[in-house]
Amino acid sequence: GAVVSQHPSWVICKSGTSVKIECRSLDFQATTMFWYRQFPKQSLMLMATSNEGSKATYEQGVEKDKFLINHASLTLSTLTVTSAHPEDSSFYICSATRGRGIQYFGAGTRLSVL
Amino acid sequence: QKEVEQDPGPLSVPEGAIVSLNCTYSNSAFQYFMWYRQYSRKGPELLMYTYSSGNKEDGRFTAQVDKSSKYISLFIRDSQPSDSATYLCAMSAGSGAGSYQLTFGKGTKLSVIP
Predict the structure, then answer these.
(1) Mapped to the 3 state alphabet, what secondary structure does B10-72 carry?
(2) CB contacts, 8 Å: B5 with chain A
(3) Which helix (H) or strand (E) holds A84?
(4) B92-111, pLDDT tens digit by residue?
(5) Which of A6, A23, A34, B104 has the greatest number of C-beta atoms within 10 Å?
C-alpha cells in the first residue's frame, strides 16, 4: 500500500509555456501533499505544502504565482509551472501523507525548459 | 549546528558486507524517523520508519533509534549491488503545527561492488 503516482516522468517545453505535473495517491486518501524540488547531488528542497480544499503554504523564496498548486481532492494535487524559463529546469517530486508525518513519494518529474 | 547531520560519503563496500548508515539530530521534538532509498533520477522510496526509540527489522534492513543520544542508524546485511543508491534519513514531529514536514539529512551515497 501507500503508492503515489506522479506524471509525467519527463517533460520538455519551450520557454514561456506552462507545464502541469500531477500527483495522485492511488490507494489511500492523503491528508496533506507536498511538492519538492531537487537539484543534482543535493537533497530535497520543500517548495510547498497543500491540504485538500485549501490554499497551499509556500516556503520562503518560492514564488506562488510561478508555481501554482491545486489540491482538488484527497487523492490529487497538481503543480503548474507557469511561464517556464530555463532556470526552472529541475527535478520535481511530490509526496503524500496519511498522517503521522510519514511521507510517500512519487517517482519525480524531470522538467527541461528550452 | 544543522538539525540533521548525515555523512554524505561516498561509501563503497564489497558485495555481502554489512553496511552501517547513521544520522544525528538536534530537535528533541522529532518522533518519527524514516529511511529512504533514492536511485538516480527517481523519487525517494520509503524503506523503514520507526516511532520513538527502538529497533525495527525488515528482511536485510534494521533501523535503530536512540532518542537519548539523538542518533539513528540503518544497517543493511548481505549488501547487494542493487542496494547501490543514496540513502536519506528523515524525521518529523508527527503532531502539532508543521509536524508533517520532514527534515532530511543530506544523504549518503552507497556503492556495493560485486
Answers:
(1) CEEEECCCCEEEEEEECCCCCCEEEEEEECCCCCCEEEEEEECCEEEEECCEEEEEECCCCEE
(2) none
(3) none
(4) 987 665 668 899 999 999 99
(5) A23
Question: Contact A32/B100, CB-based, under 8 Å?
Answer: yes
- The shortest C-alpha distance from A108 to chain B (Å) reads 5
Count CB-CB contacts under 10 A for residue A22: 15
Query: Are B49 and A102 in contact (CB < 8 Å)?
Result: yes
CA dihedral (A20, A31, B43, B22) positive or negative: positive
Residue of A nearest to B42 (CA): A107
B43, closest residue in chain A (CA to CA): A107
Q: C-alpha grid cell for residue A20?
A: 502541469
Contact residues on chain B for A49, CB-CB shorter than 8 A: 100-101
Which residues in A lie closer than 8 A to residue B104 (C-beta atoms)? 43-44
**pLDDT string in tens for chain A (114-residue length):** 789 999 999 999 999 999 999 999 999 998 899 999 999 888 899 999 998 888 899 999 999 999 999 988 899 999 999 999 999 999 999 999 987 778 999 999 999 999
Q: Which of A48, A42, A6, A44 is nearest to A25 (CA)?
A: A6
